[in-house]
Amino acid sequence: MVIIGIYRPPRNLCGDHQQLLENELSQVCNWASLQSNSVVIIGDLNLNRLRSDKREGKLLLDLEIEQCFMSNQETYQSGTSWNNNKSQPY
C-alpha cells in the first residue's frame, strides 16, 4: 500500500499554475500506481471537488477518472462538514 499526504496552500488556479498542479498530481499518482495496487491519497489540496462546474472541481474529477480512483467525496467549508453535497453542521 502506498499512502500519499499532500497539502496545497489556498490560492486561485490560474494560468500555468493549474497546468503545473495537474501535471504534478498526475505524475505522483502514476508513480504510486506503479508501486502498489493500493494507493491512498490524504491531505488538503484546497480544491473544492463538489464544484465540478469550476476548474478546481474539474481538475480533481478528471484526475479520478484518469487514475480510476474512488473518492469519499468529503470536503470541509467554513465550519460546515459537507458530505455528498449536503450541509451538516458540527
What does this structure look like?
- The chain is α+β, with helices and mostly antiparallel strands.
- Helix 1 runs parallel beside helix 2 (55-67).
- The protein has one domain.
- The strands form two sheets. A three-stranded antiparallel β-sheet has the order 3-4-5, with no helix packed on it. Strands 1-2 form a two-stranded parallel ribbon.
- The termini are far apart.
- The protein has helices spanning 16-35, 55-67; strands at residues 2-7, 39-44, 74-77, 80-83, 86-89.
- The longest helix has 20 residues, at 16-35.
- The protein has two helices and five strands.
Number of helices: 2
Q: Taking Cα atoms only, what radius of gyration do you get, to the nearest Å?
A: 14 Å
Quaternary structure of the protein:
single chain
Number of strands: 5
- Output the strand order for the largest sheet: 3-4-5
The helicity comes to 25-40%
Written as H for each helix and E for each strand, in order along the chain, the element string is EHEHEEE
N- to C-terminal distance: 32 Å
